Amino acid sequence: MARYVVRVARSAGLIILFLAAAILGIVSGVLFAYAGDLPGISALDDYAPSTISRVYGARGEIVGEFAIQRREVIPYEAIPPKLRQAILAAEDSEFEQHFGLSIPRIIVTLAKDIMERRKAGGASTLTQQLTRKLFLTDEKTWERKIKEAILAIQIEKRYTKREIFTFYCNQMYFGHGVYGVEAASRLYFGKSAKDLSLEEAALIAGILQGNVRQSPYVNRDAAVRRRNYTLTRMAEVGYITAAEAEAARKKPIVVRDDPPSQTYSVAPYFLEEVRKELESRYGAKQLYENGLSVQTALDLNLQEAANKALDEGLRRVDKRRGFRKPRRNVVQEGHAIDTLRQPRWDRPMHAGDVVPAVVTTVDATSIQTRVGNMRVTIDRKGFAWTGRTSPAQLVTRGDLVEVRLSAPKGAADIPAFVNEQGTSATGTLEQTPAVEGGAIAIDNRTGQIKAMVGGFSFDRSKFNRATQAYRQVGSGFKPIVYTAAIDRGYTPVTILMDTPTSFNGGVGQPPYAPMNYDRQFEGPVTLRHALEQSRNVPAVRVMEQLGPTQVIAYARRLGLESPLPPYLAVALGAAEATLLEITSAYSVFPNQGVRMRPYTILKVTDRAANVLEENRPEPRDAIRADTAYVMTNLLRGVVQRGTGAKAASLKWPIGGKTGTTDDYTDAWFIGFDPDITIGVWIGYDQKRTMGPGGTGSDTALPIWMEIMKAWIGKRTEAPTFEAPGNIIFMSVDRYSGGAALEGIPGAITEAFISGTQPGIGFRQ
């Protein structure tokens, strides 16, 4: 009997050894089969996942972002304990004990696979999940699972638990295009991960299992269930007490108002200019994946003022052409009015905002619309500007329109509207303008661009009218003509003839006979008067006397690079330039004759804070300082007494010039104070008249003034234009240019380059 038992034991031992050898052989074979086909995990030594490149404004505000994966990489220390515990409780509570695989979970899952005849999930450890996201796919095959297990073990052997957990928290996807816990925290709660509350941390951890499916933006009930599951697990594991879990479960989910698809930027045209520059220098991969930090000089307050001023100015100009019927009707398109959504409705709304609306009802006296969940009424006063008396003449049910929200009566400040069911407001009917425009602001002393608007709407058109549109500058070119004249011995009191004249038009061409805007002639006038009142004939006479080639040479020195043919009509702005070019040229006058190359990017650093580029002001002497000061003084007269006199109400040291083409296709105002130069252009993309009133003074100047008001702000101490030492001030008669006693009617203080002043005068 004993021999039998020994024999059986020997046989069992041999069987066990055989099975062990077979299993070992199978495992070795599997390892051998797949080892050569596995990626090298050593790549994690230099873990550098795709991160967000950010563009910053002058005060450190985020202007915009570029990314394929919206991720912010943070160290282990920046992940708060509550969030660490929530992730471990929800995903892998045995993370600290296992070697990359959880054998009990594998056995349970394998049993489910056999019983249910499918590949069940749930066995993956946190390390396996990381492996799958870094090196493999989510394909449910045995081959992938084997590779995943091998790689997970290798990762556990090479890296510490803290390192693996940090990789995981930075790599995983949290829905809506964001990766990593930091970007997820900012997406859902508008705060850093280190500032998350317990229930917020549980929500972030809960989203991991289902990504978008369990996002509070997509399925709030599912988000609550997963959050509460995480809280329960945290209590079961011992990270928190049952009472803490219960208290957190009772709290509602409160995420930030902005939708996850939000891509709004306060400066989209500026941001696009920056993007093009960066991509041309560093390539798309580095821009969209390598987390560049880009510093600019953009002044967000000025930018917002420019956005608003151009928007309202274009609407004002457009309304002169009358009301246009809405182009879209959702009912006719087969959509339901009640379910219509607009991205703008998800952003905060305030009195004065223009927002899209859908017409729900039209009666005899009013138009009822829906803006998100609000009911907005447009009464007769709200559509009076159209000239129509009946709402039915304007819109029909289902029309998509624009509405300017009105402040409630007696409101002490501009309220924010609560976009909830049952709320109501009143508004004014608006329409999207067909006319376009652009605005730009340049720091005189550095050339840094402080604000840029390239059109009415970046969504409507990406074409940047501040940098790409070549338009006739009209009378805006005259200061360049007079700059050449002052530099060649003319003075502000030089007499010019405003009389009928004609010039040889060239072979086979009729004579060129310039006319003034008012079709009148004033006879002898001073150079100052000719510029202030924007008289055409004197400007052409001066260009003819100096020679077109010489005047164009000055335009080049001031920074105009557009084609400028040597014709006399160029004196009146017949040639074309961009708004950026002409604004930069004007900035030379208050900057004592020095032109600063305009630029957008100040500094670029990579994710390791290495400086890739750092741009500094690039000065170039364009004209003499004394000539620049005389021109500054002349252009101040345009604001004090001339075509730009509306701006005198700002009571600020300002110079500038209006520009208008003969057929009202283009309207300009370029103006400056000692620190900044701002340019505004208005017109249609396809050149056509804006009609009577389409002058620089009536269309561009009011917009410029609103931007300038924002620049001045609450300052009471104004900067000054510094005069060079060789400038002589004298009292002269503004009409004749002759010496005059200071203080008598018509007397003004004139600036002269020393040696060019009249022989008799009263020096100040």
**Count of DSSP-assigned helices:** 20
How many strands? Answer: 27
Number of domains: 6
Q: What is the CATH first-level class name of the largest domain?
A: Mainly Alpha
Low-confidence stretches: 19-37, 760-764
Class per helix and strand makeup: alpha+beta
The CATH superfamily of the largest domain bears the name: Biosynthetic peptidoglycan transglycosylase-like
CATH topology of the largest domain: Penicillin binding protein transpeptidase fold
Q: Report the mean per-residue pLDDT as an integer.
A: 88
- Largest beta-sheet characterization: 5 strands, mixed
Report strand order across the widest sheet.
2-1-5-20-21
How much of the residues is beta strand, in percent?
A: 15-25%
CATH architecture of the largest domain: Orthogonal Bundle
Overall shape: it is: elongated
Distance between the termini: 135 Å
Calculate Rg over CA atoms.
Answer: 36 Å
Question: How would you sum up this structure, described in words?
Answer:
- Strand 1 (53-56) and strand 2 (62-66) form a beta hairpin.
- The protein is elongated and about 125 Å long.
- With 764 residues, it is an alpha+beta fold.
- The strands form nine sheets. A five-stranded mixed sheet has the order 2-1-5-20-21. A five-stranded mixed barrel has the order 7-8-9-12-10.
- The termini are far apart.
- Residues 19-37 and 760-764 have low confidence and may be disordered.
- It contains 20 helices and 27 strands.
- It has six domains: 1-37; 69-264, Biosynthetic peptidoglycan transglycosylase-like (Penicillin binding protein transpeptidase fold); 297-321 and 436-469 and 578-590 and 645-678 and 690-720, 3-Layer(aba) Sandwich (Beta-lactamase); 323-433, OB fold (Dihydrolipoamide Acetyltransferase, E2P), CATH 2.40.50; 477-575, Beta-lactamase (3-Layer(aba) Sandwich); 723-764, no CATH class.
